[in-house]
Amino acid sequence: MPKPKKIVVLGGGTAGWMAACLLNHAWGAADVPTQITVIESSDIETVGVGEGSTPYMRQFFRTLGIEESQWMPACNATYKCGISFPEWSGRSNAPSYFHPFFSQLDLKPAADYFNSCNKRRRGKSVACLPDDYFVAAALARQKRAPIAQQDLGFEHDYAYHFDAGLLATFLKKFAKARGVLHIVDTVSGVIQDDAQTISRLKTQNHGDQQADIFFDCSGFASVLMGKTLKQPFISYADTLVNDCAVAIPTPLEDDDLLPSETVSLAATNGWMWKIPLTHRYGNGYVYSSQYLTADQAEQELRTKLGECADGAEAKHLKMRIGRVEQHWAGNCVAAGLSQGFIEPLEATAIGLIQYTIEQFIEHFEKGDFSDKYRSDFNRLVNKSFDGVKDYVSLHYRLNGRSDSQYWIDNRENTAVSDSLQRIIDCWSNGGDFDERLTLEKMAQSYMRPSWYCIFSGMGYFPEERNDAAKFTRAAADARRQCEHISSSFYTHSRLWLQQGNS
Questions:
Q1: Alpha-carbon dihedral sign for residues 170, 176, 177, 179
Q2: Catalytic residue annotation
Q3: Residue-wise burial string across 412-443, b where 16 or more C-beta atoms lie within 10 A, e elsewhere
Q4: Closest CA to 214 of 394, 358, 465, 10
């Protein structure tokens, strides 16, 4: 099994320390271990906003053998059952919907849900809001954690909310305890052997740092992959117009119970997130600078948050939306913002970082620096980015709002991939939606339930009725069953989380 002798990771933060941890786990305990060094500048501030993940992140901690009771209290983390989307559709028949995570508990009610969706697509006025059919939605309504009080015989799927700055600090400590070297310094130069190969990094105080492989985790600066290797950047700006965000923290309510959902609330020219941590809420406004100034965005967010935001500092962020053409070029791999970013909706950033690192390890072990495996790696990572872009953009494409030019322009945007357009057309014309999803599987990243949830949750049906659909017995039975099952799960208590769920 080939493995590198030395890896240098440029940049800390979540991406850099995730890379260090996974690379060290793969190759740091061999007879001749790979030496991994993280070079982190003291001049770069970590944003540290509240952040969410997908269930895929659970695999990251399992791989490293880190228990939730270890990392969650250290990162002020909470559980996440899914995402609610109030006011996105602009249709009276769908004022809000919940995008849940799924488990075996959902098999029977989900079958009824898919059946009801397909009836509605073909003209029957039946209720098919995902909120009624999935246990995760009931857990969120009841402010419960996705942890059952008794063994179910299987795991209920879920994700996390956490403080991104604290997570990077936790992973740094974990990695250093396992032999990862940490250099706090500034890189003053990059020395190349040729146009595609990096030889060493020059630092101000620690001399030259040589390596077989360099990981670029330098954020939007993309010091190695962008500035040095000149890797082309594929912009998604024609499809996803949001390029800015402003974040403001607010205190928790006095109630010990915490929400177990991310709220993604549609706003005038974008959307606002609300993420519960054990010590505060993370709030933010994601918007497009084409339609809103930074000051206007901050004021709109403060108005929405009310008095609880008085005196709280606002952090303004600029986002470069898109991806590099190759995520592994020569002996350099980009992970995190240096490789690309898809706006925060659906919380995919951490998952894309994790997927990139895991796929790199797998492909490198197959063929070292082989062009074949490098090409296969880049194809898979690009597919993931492009598939996520499609699903995220669909939220905007399906909206029925007309209260601002922002929403009208997003709905009328014709920059839609061929694959996504075929999915939209099939849903609209009453065709075999499951067959279409199977045919588009190679181009898409999301699973069948998510596609049904976004179309039905947005109230996007051919008849475009504004009246409420009939609440059927199937929907009532499913909702009642989900509420009953949820009562056997733990409440999402602040104290319970801070004590490590003990």
A1: positive
A2: 80
A3: eeeebbebbebbbebbeeeeebeebbeebeeb
A4: 10
Q: Where are the beta strands (DSSP E) in 11-128?
A: 35-40, 50-52, 78-80, 82-84, 98-100
Instruction: Name the one residue in this structure whose structure tokens are 């699973």.
Output: 447
Backbone angles phi, psi at 163, to 5 degrees: -85, 115
Backbone angles phi, psi at 358, to 5 degrees: -65, -40
Residue found by looking up tokens 């039946």 in the block: 126
Label residues 49-87 b or e (16+ Cβ within 10 Å = b): bbbbbbbbbbebbeebebebeebbbbbbbbbbbbbbbeb
Q: Is the pTM of this model over 0.70?
A: yes
Query: CB neighbours of 89 closer than 8 A, spacing ≥ 6?
Result: 95, 97, 398, 399, 400, 401, 457, 458, 459, 460
Token pair belonging to 179: 């032999």
pLDDT in tens, 421-477: 999 999 999 999 999 999 999 999 999 999 999 999 999 997 654 455 666 788 888
Q: What is the pLDDT of residues 306-336, one digit of tens each?
A: 999 999 999 999 999 999 999 999 999 999 9
Q: Please tell me the distance from the alpha carbon of residue 460 to that of residue 481, in angstroms, as a whole number.
A: 26
Indicate the Cα dihedral angle 257, 261, 267, 269, nearest 10°.
140
Q: Where are the alpha helices (DSSP H) in 285-370?
A: 294-305, 349-367
User: Residue 340: left if φ>0, alpha if ψ -120 to 50, beta else—which one?
Assistant: left
Burial of 200 (0-12, 13-18, 19+ CB in 10 A): middle
